[in-house]
Design a protein that fits this description.
With about 160 residues, this protein is of the alpha/beta class. It has a single domain (about 1-145), classed as Ribonuclease H-like superfamily/Ribonuclease H (Nucleotidyltransferase, domain 5, 2-Layer Sandwich). The chain has five helices and five strands, in the order βββαβαβααα. The chain has helices at about 35-45, 60-80, 90-95, 105-115, 125-145, and strands at about 1-5, 15-20, 25-35, 50, 85. The chain has a five-stranded mixed sheet with strand order 3-2-1-4-5. The chain is globular. The two termini are about 20 Å apart.
């Protein structure tokens, strides 16, 4: 299974593509884009898309900008007929580090371990890979549960 992870940002959007085969995950590509998630979808042809949900703290203006970036990424996925899954920042940290309260450096460290990627990585890039890895780990667990159901594009968790 090939998964595109998206970390929406107000300035740049991180993306990460991972492939899961026989319980092993491998980084295919990652980076940041100012726009044009559709080009990433066309180039790497993922099977699914996983998107980080927007966390609203105090800055309403930032939340609006992040929502716009997230909506653009979701539109690109829908246009490509991808099923789209959403995860909260806490769910992503829990799946990758084992603690929903992990900081960004811990997440990036585990992303490096899980993917074997050694080159320098931007924060948005490692966050997007974490979203994709979260989906791989979560979907694998759901697949083994007797009454688990998949998610469909347009349906939110």
């Amino acid at each position: 299974m090939r998964v595109l992870g998206i970390d929406p940002g107000s300035r740049v959007t991180g993306y990460g593509i991972v492939e899961m085969e026989a319980n092993q995950t491998h980084r295919i590509a990652s980076g940041v884009v100012n726009d044009e998630i559709g080009a990433v979808v066309r180039e790497f042809q993922p099977d699914r898309m996983a998107v980080e949900q927007v966390f609203v703290s105090r800055n309403f203006d930032s939340a609006i900008k992040l929502s716009h970036a997230r909506a653009a990424a979701i539109c690109a996925g829908v246009t490509a007929s991808l099923d789209i899954d959403e995860y909260t920042p806490r769910q992503i940290k829990q799946a990758i580090v084992g603690s929903g309260a992990a900081d960004k450096s811990q997440v990036q460290h585990m992303v490096r371990i899980l993917t074997g990627y050694k080159d320098p990585m931007l924060e948005d890039e490692s966050d997007a890979l974490a979203v994709a890895l979260c989906h791989c780990h979560t979907s694998q667990t759901l697949h083994h549960l007797p009454h688990a159901t998949g998610f469909r594009a347009g349906r939110h968790r």
